[in-house]
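A reminder from the course coordinator: this example appears on the midterm review sheet, so study it carefully.

Given structure:
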């Protein structure tokens, strides 16, 4: 996973980010953020525009005053639809919001968890301590494990200067508890309707006397 979470952030300004689903037209601003963030793989504008058409539901933006200050790209694996793979994420160093990258990751992962995902995957280099801490923290909060499974893609496949991409897998995650339906109550026994009083006829009174 390529990521830049918090480099050079200025003091917090007490602003609250808004998380929303991206739209194709957001691809240009995200491309510019990637271009200006050291260490991220730069893709074309077309890539991000297309991604936000086809995989918007699995991605997330962070905005402040309608400005995009962070993004996360992810998708549900076709062969394992209960697995959510996080691929690229970054936040602007000018956002001024503490732990924005962590909040963005947790919001995106929790949204997929609510939709049935039981595992979250990401590839991380051994040197990327920041994102490794994010994964461990998320797993701990959700009472799950994070396992460094294997080298998914060796550096030789990815070009000069690239690191091995080690697969990390979080899970299983508990599903969001369904609303409990109250147990059916036994029917309340209704009192028998009172019979109208029997009136004695004059003949009956006379016989009784």
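Designed residues:
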């Amino acid at each position: 996973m390529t990521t830049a979470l918090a480099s050079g952030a200025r003091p917090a300004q007490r602003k609250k980010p808004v998380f929303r689903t991206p739209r194709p037209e957001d691809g240009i601003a995200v491309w510019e953020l990637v271009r200006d963030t050291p260490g991220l793989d730069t893709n074309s504008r077309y890539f991000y525009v297309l991604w936000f058409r086809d995989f918007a539901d699995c991605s997330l933006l962070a905005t402040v005053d309608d400005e995009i200050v962070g993004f996360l790209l992810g998708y549900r694996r076709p062969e394992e639809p209960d697995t959510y793979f996080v691929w690229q994420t970054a936040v602007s160093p000018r956002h001024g919001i503490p732990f924005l990258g962590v909040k963005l990751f947790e919001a995106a992962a929790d949204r997929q968890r609510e939709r049935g995902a039981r595992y979250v995957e990401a590839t991380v280099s051994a040197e990327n301590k920041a994102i490794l801490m994010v994964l461990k923290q998320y797993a701990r909060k959700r009472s799950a494990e994070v396992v460094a499974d294997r080298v998914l893609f060796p550096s030789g496949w990815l070009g000069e200067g690239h690191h091995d991409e080690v697969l990390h897998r979080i899970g299983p995650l508990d599903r969001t508890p369904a609303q409990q339906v109250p147990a059916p109550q036994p029917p309340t026994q209704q009192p028998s309707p009172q019979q109208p009083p029997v009136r004695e006829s004059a003949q009956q009174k006379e016989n009784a006397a």
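The first helix runs from residue 27 to 35. Residues 6 and 91 are 7 Å apart (CA to CA).
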